[in-house]
């Protein structure tokens, strides 16, 4: 996403965490205080590896991931690094006699999968296993259940680690952990240790905008002190088989990570790369330091003085990592830079406004009525995945789409709750309806009968035609509606109708809408009299709520209102809600030039300058969904505080604006083509009206090549 600050705090702490890892393997305070060294290396430094897990989870794990590509890329990249690290340490393994052990083949397999072929390399297979477990937990469950499951694994690991003193005295547990330790030397691995931190990272990624710095600092301070106390107590009681896993490590890491998320700035790739190299190479630097000390008889300084030993290992590791990066940057093949996405044209989606609109609409709805977010046609051009994911996070659990493929895409993105398909689905796709837990609209009796004959139990809503004469079973055919309830494979979860002129308060339209409502109510009463259990009911779409808020149903199908704009400027509504536009269409000025009086601009030479003029080219056109009908001074664009006309014909990829009467407009400036409140000349209903359309159509036509920038 371009135009945002990156997580500098995370990048910086990666480097600190890498140095903390070195403390674990060098024990820098042993020359001065055994307890001090224990606190530093066995308690405080234990935040390092979970931090790395959580950082990886932050960028990899999300309930709202479109597909498994990020997971696959992470595992592939980690596997390559792991393979290179294994090869790097083969000479040291040979020197240590690693390949002379008994049962070499099964031990190598065990080490490669769990323990690492060198003592610190366990982190890499743990990352791959932990990421996979966490990703699928989050995909199949919500965060609460996924965290509970991962926390249970962590608890099991805990009693094989810092709390092993309890387990070894209970025969059943001792037997269990005996079997575990035949497979892995420690419970500090990718099964028991890593998943919970990956899930916490994914949760932070999906909720980072809610994290507050003050609460995070307090939470970290309290949990860190408690973790220190826990570690010291367990050490005093001699319970620890190993000392990587603590109860209070979980909140400590979460709050630490939350603090780091508040520090944003430039992206520091070099720190991220450097920390990885330091992590992998530092044991080699320990070996080199010991060898150097032995050759030059400096053991008294470089080995026996633990603090000097630590600093030398850190220094050599940092120098090595810096050298590797310098060589890599100098000799690597050049890589083409990818466009950031906002250098041409883009849509800015204000998720804060989306959340605000959802809350305003819910407040206007009758008690116990639920918001059904309509996200068809890519959420009216706003991005179905982006909109549904954010709404899911704030508690919306009911969605409506137009097609089965729209519904399947949302399911694959991890969207939870009910998804109603408002349109037609071929009956031979019944298995997919069930597989993806989608609810199908029954568009008439014959369709319901054909779907029932597929032999697959399907959730459905019955559409009732009360006068629009588009889809639905006629409200007069009560017997057919009743017979649908008796179909073996049709589970009726709802009944609804659509009000075809609810957006109009003209007396004749209002009378027709009232007639539709009465017809629907009559049908429902007739079904009740026949003993049919009435499922969820819904009548209102956006304008149904805005003009008929008194209707008491189970759902309101909010579409265009959810995105904060009216369909057109002509419409008056009974309710005046504080709805805010979610989408802003922007483009960059790529060229500014001066033309002479009499010069023409664009295809067909339809603009002729009546004076010496300054014009600017915007890199957006009808190929991006901006209507060609706004050509030749029909369209307006906002740039800085100015509203300027579109001149000449709009092209597929560019358009031209007249900036003669403006000041200080230059290449790189951002222009707004759609955005703002209703009374703004570039608001969606204003732009739609000028092009002879409505906001709904205008926004749905936004091109797929437009970049999307989230705004909070």
Structure description:
It is a single chain. Strands 2, 3, 4, 5, 6, 7, 8, 9 and 10 form a nine-stranded parallel β-sheet that branches. Strands 11-14-17-16-15-18 form a six-stranded antiparallel barrel. Strands 12-13 form a two-stranded antiparallel sheet. It is built from 27 helices and 19 strands. It is globular, with a radius of gyration of 32 Å.
- Into which percent range does the helicity of residues fall? 40-55%
Q: Oligomeric state of the chains?
A: single chain
Strand content: 5-15%
The radius of gyration over CA amounts to 32 Å
The overall pLDDT, averaged over residues, is: 92
Domains, number: 3
Structural class: alpha/beta
Largest sheet: 9 strands, parallel
Total number of strands: 19
Bulk shape: globular
The stretches of 5 or more residues where confidence is low (pLDDT under 50) are 335-339
How many H/I helices?
27
Distance between the termini: 13 Å
């Amino acid at each position: 996403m371009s135009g945002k600050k990156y997580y500098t705090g995370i990048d910086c702490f990666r480097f600190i965490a890498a140095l903390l890892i070195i403390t674990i393997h060098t024990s820098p305070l042993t020359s001065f205080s055994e307890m001090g060294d224990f606190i530093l290396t066995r308690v405080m430094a234990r935040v390092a590896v979970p931090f790395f897990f959580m950082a990886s989870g932050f960028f990899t794990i999300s309930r709202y991931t479109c597909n498994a590509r990020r997971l696959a890329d992470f595992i592939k990249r980690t596997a390559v690094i792991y393979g290179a690290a294994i090869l790097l340490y083969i000479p040291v393994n040979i020197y240590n006699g690693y390949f002379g052990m008994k049962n070499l083949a099964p031990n190598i397999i065990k080490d490669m999968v769990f323990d690492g072929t060198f003592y610190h390399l366990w982190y890499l297979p743990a990352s791959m296993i932990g990421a996979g477990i966490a990703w699928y937990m989050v995909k199949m469950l919500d965060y609460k259940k996924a965290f509970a499951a991962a926390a249970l694994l962590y608890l099991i690991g805990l009693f094989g680690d810092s709390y092993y003193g309890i387990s070894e005295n209970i025969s059943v547990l001792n037997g269990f952990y005996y079997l575990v330790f035949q497979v892995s030397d420690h419970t500090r691995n990718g099964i028991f240790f890593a998943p919970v931190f990956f899930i916490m990272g994914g949760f932070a990624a999906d909720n980072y905008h809610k994290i507050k710095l003050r609460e995070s600092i307090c939470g970290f301070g309290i949990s860190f002190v408690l973790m220190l106390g826990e570690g010291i107590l367990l050490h005093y009681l001699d319970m620890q088989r190993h000392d990587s896993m603590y109860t209070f490590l979980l909140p400590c890491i979460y709050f630490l990570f939350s603090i780091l998320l508040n520090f944003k700035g430039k992206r520091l790739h070099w720190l991220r790369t450097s920390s990885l190299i330091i992590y992998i190479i530092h044991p080699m630097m320990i070996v080199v330091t010991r060898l150097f000390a032995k050759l030059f008889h400096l053991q008294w300084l470089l080995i026996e003085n633990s603090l000097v030993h630590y600093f030398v290992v850190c220094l050599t590791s940092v120098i090595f990592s810096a050298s590797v990066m310098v060589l890599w940057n100098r000799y690597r093949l050049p890589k083409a830079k990818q466009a950031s996405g906002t250098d041409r044209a883009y849509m800015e989606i204000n998720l804060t406004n989306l959340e605000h609109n959802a809350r305003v609409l819910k407040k206007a709805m009758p008690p116990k009525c639920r918001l059904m977010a309509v996200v068809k046609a890519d959420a009216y051009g706003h991005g179905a995945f982006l909109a549904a994911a954010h709404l899911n996070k704030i508690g919306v659990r009911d969605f409506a789409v137009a097609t089965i493929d729209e519904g399947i895409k949302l399911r694959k993105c991890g969207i939870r709750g009910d998804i109603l398909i408002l349109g037609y689905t071929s009956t031979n796709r019944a298995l997919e309806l069930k597989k993806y837990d989608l609810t199908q609209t029954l568009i008439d009796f014959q369709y319901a009968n054909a779907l029932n004959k597929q032999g697959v139990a399907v959730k459905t809503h019955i559409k009732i035609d009360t006068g629009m004469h588009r889809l639905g079973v006629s409200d007069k055919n009560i017997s057919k509606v009743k017979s649908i309830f008796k179909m073996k494979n049709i589970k009726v979860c709802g009944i609804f109708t659509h009000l075809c002129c609810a957006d109009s308060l003209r007396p004749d339209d209002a009378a027709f809408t009232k007639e539709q409502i009465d017809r629907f109510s009559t049908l429902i009463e007739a079904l009740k009299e026949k003993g049919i259990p009435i499922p969820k009911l819904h009548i209102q779409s956006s304008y149904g709520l805005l003009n008929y808020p008194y209707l008491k149903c189970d759902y309101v199908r909010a579409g265009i209102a959810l995105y904060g704009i009216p369909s057109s400027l002509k419409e008056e509504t009974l309710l005046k809600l504080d709805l805010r536009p979610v989408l802003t269409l922007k483009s960059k000025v790529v060229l500014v030039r001066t033309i002479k009086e009499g010069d023409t601009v664009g295809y067909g030479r339809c603009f002729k300058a009546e004076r010496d003029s300054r014009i600017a080219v915007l890199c957006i056109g009808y190929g991006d969904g901006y209507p060609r009908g706004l050509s030749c001074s029909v369209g307006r664009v906002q740039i800085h505080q100015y509203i300027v006309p579109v001149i000449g014909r709009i092209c597929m990829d560019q358009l031209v604006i007249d900036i003669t009467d403006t000041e200080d407009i230059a290449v790189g400036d951002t222009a707004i083509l759609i955005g703002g409140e209703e009374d703004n000349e570039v608001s969606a209903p204003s732009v739609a009206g000028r092009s002879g359309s409505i906001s709904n159509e205008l926004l749905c036509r936004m091109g797929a090549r437009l970049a999307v920038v989230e705004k909070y």
